[in-house]
Each structure stands twice: as structure tokens, then as C-alpha cells.
TrEMBL record:
Keywords: Membrane, Transmembrane, Transmembrane helix. The keyword Transmembrane helix applies. The chain crosses the membrane at residues 24-45, 57-76, 107-129, 136-158, 178-200, 220-243, 255-272. The keyword Membrane applies. This is Fungal pheromone STE3G-protein-coupled receptor.
Length: 315
């Protein structure tokens, strides 16, 4: 037997369920975020080489974790207000969610995740720049896209501070869809460029190295992590559901902010373990390839023309 609240349609109840489900799943995502943060923090503190770089990465993961924690705290508070403290609000929890969307707790969450997105996109662009051998021409378009995302996100935050504003008002949608579209487009572009470069490196290294040695850096899992494909995939699903006003957006939006944090932490975890691509790795692998080729003479110019190191280090 169901004791549904009086005056609410089945559609309203299902929408409220999706809002609650999104917060619950966000809690699980935050748990993953917390676990990755602890692992990264521990490994970076234990590393003895590149102390200055380690301090920079420690500062970065602390900022990311702090923003994620603030965002999750705001999600919990707004959820309590929606379903417990103000459940008799006209229209029920759904009416409160739309009518009081710009409550301080919710604005705090939105601002925290928007700022977190800036940091996550910044790291991804840096990885692109590094993996492409410091090629500024490759990074130019993503950098300009990041500036556009920053501008639109500031306008969106300003709009959400206005009385009666929410993500589903006409004005907010006119900023919300462009913001997430630009942000997701940036991630898709960078993801494809990184995947293309890593697949090329995968082909080059597997010609000269044993599969066991090459798989650390060239496995499909490694490529997906290095390219932050997780956020690009979930973000693309969200922006489509948001544009179509599907209830799926209510489940994905609370989770999206934490996935923004998980993707860069997965990359940093590989860096801390010494299994991520960096310029030192590229150089070392290139020279190792040359050494193996010169010792065994197994790589002919017909099978692999040119200098291996030049192919790996060249842009």
C-alpha cells in the first residue's frame, strides 16, 4: 500500500525520488573522492624525489578535496531542508527545490563545484600540453574554451543569486546549457586529443618493447584514466538530459561535481605511483627503445622508419 502525499502527481513524486536518489549516489561518489584523496596524499608525502612538484600536487588535491567537501556538505544541508525541515513548503519538496533553489546552502554547493571544475579542467589541459610535448598550438583551443567556460560560469552563478532563480528558469537555462556544453565540449576535445596521442605512443612503444613493459603506460585503462574519459562521458549524458529536461539530470547533477574531482585524482594517483606519462617517462622510454633496438637489431627501417626517440618526443 502506498501513502503518497496528497496533492502531488505521480510525476512530481518521481521527480522528488530522482532528487533524493541523486544525493544518495553523490554520497557514494564523495566516498570514492575521499578514498582517492587519502591515497594520493599518502603517496605524495612518501615520495622523496621532486619535492617541489609534490608540494604543488599536495596543494592541488587539498583544494580539490576541500571544494568537494564543501559542495557535498551543501548538498546534505539542502536535502535536509527539502525533505525534512521545510517539507510543508507549498508544493512539497519539489516546490521547495524550485522555489528556494538559491538558498545559501545550495548556492555554496554550486559555487564550490563550478570552482572545482576550473581546477579540474586546468589540470586536464596541462596534461594535454605535457603529453603533446609542450605543444602550445595543440593546447591553444582548449585554453580559449576554458576561458569561455569561466566567463559563462561566472554569469550563471550571478544569475542564480537573483531572487526566485533556479537552474530551470528561462534565464538560468540560457546560461546553464552553454556553460555545461562548453565545459563538456572542452573535456571531449581534450580527451580525444590525449587518447589520440597515447594511442600513438602505444603503437610506438609496443613495436620496440615487450608487451609487459609497455602495458604499464599504454593499457586501455591507463589511456582512459589519463584522458579523464569518465567525466567526459557522464557530463555528456548530463548535458543532454538537462537540455531535454529529463529526470536523469536530477540523478546526475549531484554526482557530476564529485566525478569532476575523481578524474584528476585518478591521474594524480598514477603520477604519485610513478606510472603516469610525463616528459621524463617519454624520454626514458624513448631511450630504452633505442637501446633495445641497437642491442638486438630487431627493428628494421622498413618496419619502423626513423628514430624512435624522435617519434616519441616529437610533436
Amino acid at each position: 500500500m502506498s501513502f503518497a502525499p496528497p496533492g502531488e502527481s505521480i510525476s512530481d513524486i518521481r521527480t522528488e525520488q530522482s532528487l533524493l536518489d541523486g544525493t544518495v549516489i553523490a554520497g557514494a561518489a564523495y566516498g570514492i573522492h575521499l578514498t582517492l584523496f587519502v591515497q594520493c596524499f599518502q603517496l605524495l608525502c612518501q615520495r622523496r624525489r621532486d619535492r617541489q612538484r609534490n608540494w604543488g600536487l599536495l596543494l592541488y588535491i587539498c583544494i580539490i578535496f576541500s571544494l568537494g567537501t564543501v559542495g557535498f556538505g551543501g548538498q546534505i544541508k539542502f536535502n535536509e531542508m527539502t525533505f525534512i525541515q521545510d517539507r510543508d513548503f507549498p508544493g512539497g519538496p519539489l516546490g521547495f527545490n524550485f522555489g528556494e533553489y538559491n538558498a545559501p546552502a545550495n548556492l555554496m554547493t554550486t559555487a564550490a563545484f563550478v570552482i572545482l571544475n576550473w581546477f579540474a579542467d586546468g589540470l586536464l589541459i596541462y596534461r594535454l600540453y605535457m603529453i603533446w610535448n609542450n605543444n602550445l598550438y595543440v593546447a591553444a583551443l582548449p585554453i580559449l574554451t576554458l576561458l569561455g567556460s569561466f566567463t559563462v560560469s561566472v554569469l550563471l552563478l550571478f544569475q542564480l543569486t537573483q531572487p526566485g532563480a533556479s537552474l530551470w528558469t528561462r534565464v538560468a537555462i540560457s546560461f546553464g546549457i552553454p556553460y555545461w556544453s562548453i565545459s563538456i565540449s572542452l573535456n571531449v576535445i581534450v580527451t580525444l586529443l590525449i587518447v589520440a596521442r597515447l594511442l600513438y605512443m602505444r603503437r610506438v612503444t609496443r613495436i620496440a618493447l615487450t608487451p609487459e613493459h609497455a602495458s604499464t603506460y599504454t593499457s586501455i585503462v591507463a589511456i582512459l584514466i589519463e584522458s579523464a574519459a569518465l567525466y567526459s562521458t557522464v557530463g555528456l549524458i548530463f548535458v543532454i538530459s538537462y537540455a531535454r529536461n529529463s529526470m536523469v539530470q536530477n540523478v546526475l547533477l549531484p554526482v557530476l561535481g564529485h566525478i569532476q574531482a575523481v578524474s584528476p585524482l585518478l591521474i594524480i594517483l598514477r603520477v604519485a605511483r610513478g606510472v603516469a606519462w610525463d616528459r621524463r617517462t617519454i624520454r626514458a622510454t624513448a631511450h630504452y627503445c633505442e637501446m633495445i633496438a641497437s642491442i638486438h637489431g630487431e627493428i628494421s627501417r622498413n618496419a619502423f622508419p626513423g628514430n624512435i626517440a624522435a617519434k616519441l618526443l616529437g610533436s
